[in-house]
Amino acid sequence: MSIHRRRFLAALGAGAVAGTAGCARLVGGGGSGDDRPAVAGETLTLTTTTSTYDTGLLDEIHTDFEEMYGVTVDAVAQGTGAALESARNGDSDVVMVHARGLEDEFLRNGYGLNRRDLMFNDFVIVGPESDPAGIEGTSSATEALAAIADSEASFVSRGDNSGTHTKELNLWEAAGAEPGGDWYQETGTGMGEALNVATQQGAYTLADRGTFISQRSEIDLTVLVQGPIEDGPEILANPYGIMAVNPGVHDSANYDLAMAYIGWITSPGAQEAIAGFQTNGEQLFFPEAVSEDPDFQQYVPQGWSSDSSDE
Description:
This protein is α/β, with parallel strands linked by helices. The chain has helices at about 1-15, 20-25, 50-55, 55-70, 80-90, 100-110, 140-150, 165-175, 190-200, 210-215, 255-265, 270-275, and strands spanning about 45-50, 70-80, 95, 110-125, 155, 185, 205-210, 220-225, 235-245, 280, 280-285, 285.
C-alpha cells in the first residue's frame, strides 16, 4: 500500500503538472473574446458502479469539473454489468467500472475507447463478529470462502453482475466451492443493500472497502478477511478503470466531453482529490492514473495483440 502512495506523491512532486486547466484548453472555445469551453451547457452521462456513487466520491469531486467546463455530469449508478450494458445501448458517454474482464470484452467488441487506469481500493470479506465459519484473520480469501461453504454459514451475494459479484464468482471458482442452497442468498441489489441484508441475517458477504467504510456506522458487520491495502491477499485487489463510449458505434455519444472528463479525472489535481476523499478519517480510494512508470497496456484489452483481429 505504501508503495502506491509513494508513487503517487513522487509523480506529483516530479512535475506531473498537466493540471486540469490544460484539459480545458483541449476543448477551448472559440476566439473573438469567447473563452468558454466549446462543450459549455452540455450534459455528460456517466454510467458507473454503485460504489463510486454511494460513497459520495463523485458528488465531492464533480463540482470542479462542472464549473471548469460549464457542464453537468449525470452520474447513473449501476452495477458494472448494467453500466456497461447501458453504454452498449448508447445510453452513456463515459463508463467508470471495476471488472477488468468485462471492460476488456467491452473494448474488444468496439464499444469503448481510450481506457485508463483510474484508482483502486480492495475487497474485504465481512461478516458477524461471532464468525460462525471461523475465518477471521485467514490469509487466503479462497480458503475463507471454502470454510464458509463447508460450514454452510449464511452468505449474501449481490447477484447483480456487478464488479463485486464478478469478483465473488471468480473467488468461489478459485476456491473449488459451489455456492448454493439455503445458506446462499442472491439479493440482486447494490452493495449498500447487500450489506444491510447481511446485517439482518448475520451473514457473510464480499464488499468493496469504500462502501463498507462509508456505511459501517449503519451496519453490524466486521472485516474478517482483509484485502491488500491492509496486507491481505492480492486476489482481493479492486482496480477501477474509465473509458469513453465509441462514437463510431453510437454517434449520439458525446466523445469530446467524455475525453475532457477522462483527461480531468486522471490529471494530478483530480487524482489528489480522490486521494484526499475520506469518510470518518479513512481514505476510500487510492489514485492510480498518475505514475512515474505508465502502463500503456491499460489502453487495450489484456492479452490483445496486433494479430488478434486476424484470428
